[in-house]
Amino acid sequence: MQLLIATRNAHKLEEIQAILQLPGIEIVGADAVPGLPDVVEDGDTFEANAIKKAVELAAVSGMLTLADDSGLEVDALDKAPGVYSARYAGEPCDDAANNRKLLSALEGVTERTARFRCAIALATPEGQTETVDGRCEGHIELAPRGDCGFGYDPLFVPNGFEQTFAELDADAKHSISHRGAALSAAKAAWWNGSTFGLA
Predict the structure, then answer these.
(1) Active-site hit among 42, 44, 69, 78
(2) Model-level pTM greater than 0.85?
(3) Active site includes 69?
(4) Over 90: is that where the pLDDT of 51 sits?
(5) What is the pLDDT of residues 145-159, one digit of tens each?
(6) 1.10.760.10, 3.90.950.10, 3.30.1050.10, 3.30.420.130: which CATH number matches 2-197?
(7) Span between the terminal Cα atoms of the chain, in Å
């Protein structure tokens, strides 16, 4: 059985494949399925964007489809960049530019609490959907540190740690990250239960 992951982001696909590890299920990214459209993420919540991606690509592909939408919420910025995290500094998406803009927005700010959030939707080709979510609380550093990960990982230090996400090894990050939490919830709800007949 194949499970389509609604992303063309190689880093995100790699994380999802590493965390899910579902016996008997082949996980494929959107680039592996010809003719899939790019879904416009115009929802005002992470959940809305995840559902839209999952439903649209499941309908076109005829495959069970999992989609996530995730991002960073910074309390001092009224939870920005939020759903605009990937394109915070404009199009095309540029991690380094996003990080520079975030540091500029927080210049002189001492209260730097933040969280990563992730919503995951699973959709059948017929349009049946379920969602789960996960989060990881932490704070934003004054300067980037580390070479692992992607996105805002070099700036985000999870609570209880001194290292940024970009300084942690993959296993450590996956065990505490927002995406790790959401995918663990997905496995418990959908692959260890009866949703969509996947028990």
Answers:
(1) 69
(2) yes
(3) yes
(4) yes
(5) 999 989 999 999 999
(6) 3.90.950.10
(7) 13
